[in-house]
């Protein structure tokens, strides 16, 4: 089985002006594509060759894990964004956010703080804990909640290549822009599947 680069769920210019077509061309068309190519080369002829992406992530380490997790993390990230996204959370996610943080604005501040404060490369996640409550977690490099009991429902990529073309080193401005394209529909779908 060969892994393929998943298509973006919108045109490459679909997130502009918040994330440019140039960024998506590099981020999806070069970075994620390289992870897919590397993963195929690493698993070919091994016991991992016929495993799913999720199985590889949960059972490997080193370069195989890093490339598999980055393929999965990026695909999840693309779906965490939408040209029709943004605004306050709605539905069950909104209820769960308010239950945990008291208000959407407080949650937004806490998530932004976590994403900004992640040292070096990594990810900020909104997850469902084992007890059914929401939490904000960060992971470094290729690490992902898939290797824990947490169930991811939304993510923000804070690797520099996610924002450097558009925002240079201003991660804070990129995270501000993220709130204009965040996909609450996707988050609600993931929350309902986590139960």
TrEMBL record:
Domain Manganese/iron superoxide dismutase C-terminal: from-to ranges: 90-189
- Asked if the record carries the keyword Ion transport, the reply is no
Q: Cell inner membrane among the record's keywords?
A: no
Q: Which Gene3D superfamilies match?
A: Fe,Mn superoxide dismutase (SOD) domain, Iron/manganese superoxide dismutase, C-terminal domain
| Top EC group | oxidoreductase
An example Pfam family from this entry, by short name, is Sod_Fe_N
Name the family the entry cites. Belongs to the iron/manganese superoxide dismutase family.
This molecule's function is given as: Destroys radicals which are normally produced within the cells and which are toxic to biological systems.
- Descriptive protein name: Superoxide dismutase
Q: Recite the lineage of the species.
A: Eukaryota, Amoebozoa, Evosea, Eumycetozoa, Dictyostelia
């Amino acid at each position: 089985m060969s892994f393929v680069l998943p298509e973006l769920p919108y045109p490459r210019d679909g997130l502009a002006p918040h994330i440019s077509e140039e960024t998506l061309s590099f981020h999806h068309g070069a970075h994620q594509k390289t992870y897919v190519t590397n993963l195929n080369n690493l698993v070919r002829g091994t016991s991992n060759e016929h495993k799913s992406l999720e199985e590889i992530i949960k059972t490997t380490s080193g370069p195989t894990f890093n490339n598999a997790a980055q393929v999965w993390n990026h695909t999840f990230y693309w779906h965490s964004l939408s040209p029709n996204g943004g605004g306050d959370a709605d539905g069950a996610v909104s209820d769960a956010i308010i239950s945990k943080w008291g208000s959407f604005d407080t949650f937004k501040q806490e998530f932004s703080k976590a994403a900004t404060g992640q040292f070096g490369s990594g990810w900020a996640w909104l997850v469902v804990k084992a007890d059914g409550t929401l939490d904000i977690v960060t992971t470094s490099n290729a690490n992902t909640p898939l290797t824990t009991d947490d169930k991811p429902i939304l993510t923000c990529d804070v690797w520099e290549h996610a924002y450097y073309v558009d925002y240079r080193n201003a991660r804070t401005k990129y995270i501000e822009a993220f709130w204009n394209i965040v996909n609450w529909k996707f988050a609600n779908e993931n929350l309902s599947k986590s139960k």
